[in-house]
User: What shape does this take?
Amino acid sequence: MAKAPEPGKTHHRTINGMSQTDYFVYIPKVMSAEKNILYTIHGISRNAEEHIHGFTAQAEQYGAIIIAPLFPKESFPRYQQLGTSVNLERADMAFDHVLQDAHEWLGISPAPMRMFGFSGGGQFLHRYAMFYPKRVSRMVLAAPGWYTFPDPERKYPYGIKSTRDWPNLKFAIENFLQIPTLVMVGEEDDLRDKDLNKTREIDSFQGLNRIERADRWTATARALSRAYDLPSEFRLENIPKACHAFESYLAHPSFADQVFDFLFERKN
Assistant: This one.
């Protein structure tokens, strides 16, 4: 039997199977009665442990466990899109292994989840929520480079239409639209840097930078929610002075608090 994790520390966990999966866990010194859990997804810098450190103070305040999976580039080069195809390099399935291991090791219920994703992690998160909307209760997307739009005429991952690599896709968009969602983007996160997807198709309908793309995706989700007459919440927040770096967002005093307040529904 695995040793119980020590409170107040970060733990590195490895799951051996068809492919090795790693994740980091922070256990607060005092657990909340609700057993709050934050699942946080890293960007392409793969800084999963940095996410733990960035949210430790809030984890203690809320008595929340933090779980941060790690998607190595060599195993999951396109984890942001959940995988290369329906059969290859499925990051969503690797994440499910993390959930199962955490459930058995920590005795916690894996879903519904309150989730945060930064940059490529925000891409992973909103696509994961589209595939599995009943698993996600609330989510925060910080600075995704581009988005999957809930558009049945555009092929996945630009929209939700099936492709040769992703055949027979079926999405319960009405369920997805009812997940309360906060999109955060830095006021200075408008550069067309080397990590930004700059294909003509994305530029033309999503915008030229992360600010424009966040605005268009959020507006589309709101409009579609109204069309379905759903009680949806899609908020867009700008982070002052933040550029495209996780530490830049963390440098804003209220950023981490905003993430936790939204996910755990603290009323001001």
